[in-house]
Amino acid sequence: MHPFLLAAIGGGLVGVAAVMMMALNGRIAGVSGILAGIFTQAAGERPWRLLFVLGIVLGGGLPPLLNADFKAPLPGAGVLLAVIGGLLVGFGTGLGSGCTSGHGICGIARFSKRSLLATLTFMTAGVITVAILRLTTGS
Amino acid sequence: MGKLLASLASGIVFGIGMAVSGMTSTARVQGFLDFFGAWDPTLAFVMGGGLLVTTIGYRFVLRKPAPLFAGSFSLPTKTDIDKPLLIGAAIFGIGWGLVGYCPGPALAGLTYGYAPTLAFIPAMIVGLLLAHKITAKT
């Protein structure tokens, strides 16, 4: 299947998950916020968050199990860069109240101005970062 | 019970979507952000598919008085464009560009067992907790 079609189907599934979360639990399917809440929210708020995160881990593991053609992609970064990037992604999404799913999908789908601006900001920062990375490493 | 199962089911669908879409590939994500190089438009289709379904789905769902397993919808109430929003988003974008992972895809790729993914996730949680500490003070 063409990567564009797979991308649209995968994106559609993320949308289905977001609509399920809203229709059933009344929650935004924002990964960074739900993940943070496991550690910061009151005990009663933790189980559903933990199960959502566990679901993502399990769901992500299914395609390689079910389809031999699915190659689990190897991250390009080394461990040190991954730690630095992880800190920045965690801190940034924590401070900015959301990530690609919460702002980029759920927020824009609600026509939230905050989410639209956040999405434009992290996309721009990402584009600049990759441009600098390409210039300095030549890769 | 329904609430917990709904979370698990939604998470599983979300994770499958991440893997199928190509978002768990850091090379593909960085390719999408590589506007000035060999731009890979694939992720625009992920965003497009996700937004199409969510925008239409929300229109129907949010018309209902309440979700099935909760008393009310928990929607963000903030509307002002403040510094933490924009600074946080910019910092997130830098980390996203450096590694090619945002939170969802990193979790979806956890079972592939690669060392950088296993390192990224705890670092991301530490970052989230640091941000929580700072924002809880102000």
Total number of β-strand segments of chain B?
0
Give the helix proportion of chain A (percent range).
over 70%
Main sheet of chain B, how many strands, which sense, barrel? Answer: none
Order of helix and strand elements from N to C terminus of chain A: HHHHHH
Largest interface: A-B, 106 and 116 residues
State Rg of chain B.
17 Å
The shape of chain B, in one word, is globular
Number of helices of chain A: 6
Uncertain residue segments of chain A: none
Total strand count of chain A, please?
Answer: 0
Mean pLDDT of chain B: 96
| Unreliably modeled segments of chain B | none
Distance between the amino and carboxyl termini of chain B: 36 Å
Strand content of chain A: under 5%
Instruction: Report, as a whole number of angstroms, the end-to-end distance of chain A.
Output: 28 Å
Pairing-aware structural class of the strands and helices of chain A?
mainly alpha
- The helical percent of chain B reads 55-70%
Domain tally of chain A: 1
Order of helices and strands of chain B: HHHHHH
Number of domains of chain B: 1
Profile the largest sheet of chain A.
none
Describe the protein's architecture and organization:
The complex is a heterodimer of chains A (139) and B (138). Helices cover 76% and strands 0% of the residues of chain A. With 139 residues, chain A is mainly alpha-helical. Chain A starts with a helix and ends with a helix. Chain B has one domain. The termini of chain B are far apart. Chain B has 138 residues and is mostly helical. Chain B is 68% helix and 0% strand. In chain B, helix 2 (26-33) crosses helix 4. Classes of the chains: A mainly alpha (139), B mainly alpha (138). Chains A and B meet through helix 1, helix 2, helix 3, helix 4 and helix 5 of A and helix 1, helix 2, helix 3, helix 4 and helix 5 of B.
